[in-house]
Amino acid sequence: MKQELERIRPEEAGISARAAKVFLEKVQHDKTQMHGVMAMKDGKVFLEAWWEPFGRQYPHSCHSMGKSYVCTAIGIACSEGLVSMDARIADLFAEELEEWKIDQTEAFGRLQVRHVVTMTNGMDHMSELSDDWIYQYLKNPVVFEPGTQFLYNTAGSCLLAVIIKKVTGQDVFAYLSDKLFPKIGIDPASVIWLKFHDGNIAEPGCFSLTENNLRLGMLYMNGGMWDGEQIIDREWIEEALSVHIDNSDSPGGEDSRCGYGYQLWKCIYPGAWRFDGGQGQFCIMVPEKKLVVAINEGGVEPHGPGRTLKMVYEYLFDEIKEEPVEPDEEAYDALCAYISSLRVEKTPPNGHWPKQDRFSGNYRVTEGNATPWIGVSPNGFNFFESFYDQTKKKEMTDFSLCMDQEKAVFSVDGYAAFQAWFDGEIRVHLTDSVLPQLNRTYSTARYLDDDTLEITIHWISGWFITIMTFRRNQDDSYTVLASKNILNEQRPFFTDEARAELVSGFKAAGACGSDEKQPSL
Question: For the chain, what is the domain count?
Fold first, then answer.
């Protein structure tokens, strides 16, 4: 049964309601879209806010914060004596090395679990997260002495999940659902964990509640103990929250060069550590102040997430006093009203309306592949394809469009449908997709001109956006563009292109109806 966390007013935690409101104002800066914030002191939540339609009850992308969940499983397995931080990768994967006839370097024989955990794998590049990613990792030459060179390596983090499966007989989600989640108040149903096509848990494919991340941080703050039970050995937690490698040459901002522990980062703020996922998925811990802050956002790289951390340090951590402060009812009422008003910015309608509906109809894709599905491409390829449900058709081969005065209905291959509204208002609906667990969306539509329709799909499981553009050409063919956001200043989107032909004629305007699935809110 979930243990509810105690809620208190900000003043009881040592920060005025006025300062707490200023923090929320500052943290939603111009390089991010904020989704959720929770802050805790002494195990009590004193501030929490979500920007609708994001909410406390919706799992949100963790990205590389999933590394911290996987590493926590390693900590539990070490505490149970099932594996050691000194265990050699060559021993744990001896069967694979033999089967695949991999001839590694001598240094590979000295590669241990602790080196994988501290991003000191000894490789000069990260191997690909392709369908044969375990093979790619094991054959990647270890050219440096393990433990001596920092190189961020997500493939190694994914390997930790495979190690858990080897030593426990359970995948990492099942193991945590047994050994951790119920004990610290996390409902396993509130965690979504996508898998690679080989059936192994995909570390970057972790989606969890903001509060779940806060609870994980609280466990580390408490030295691995929860309600009197030592879930992870205190010594292991102390090692986790210690610098094991100098990463001062790492790319990124100043908070990426302060040192690295066990799949977590030392912060520039004195005494602070953080779990860290791409685009600003944070859980920041300050043990000396007994503070934990969890954040979900869509921060624009390279500066957005760093600016968010700066706002946390300057307008929250620095404002908190050791003792409670005098309550101010007027300021507290203003804070509560402000939190209730928080919304993501809606897309304004452009006001253009064509004289004739040129889009309602059924289409067949004749060339290329442009899909609406969630895509993440930090390195030039969509690595989320590695998680797509293989029972679903990932290519878009057929689609339909239906317009009326209020909305456009975009249906894909007979199993996914998006309700896109012309007024720009946010209306949440559910749809199937190649990632069926991530089914909560809202969509808007607008005509760019008489021959161009644009539908923007927002996936509420994270910061993912797909902009579908349908353009009618002079030869009566159609160009389809699918642009997916990367949240990077230098490259905001990656775009796929297709051509399509109209198969059956236009429906009468206003004939779309509504067969959308309504969410349980």
Answer: 3
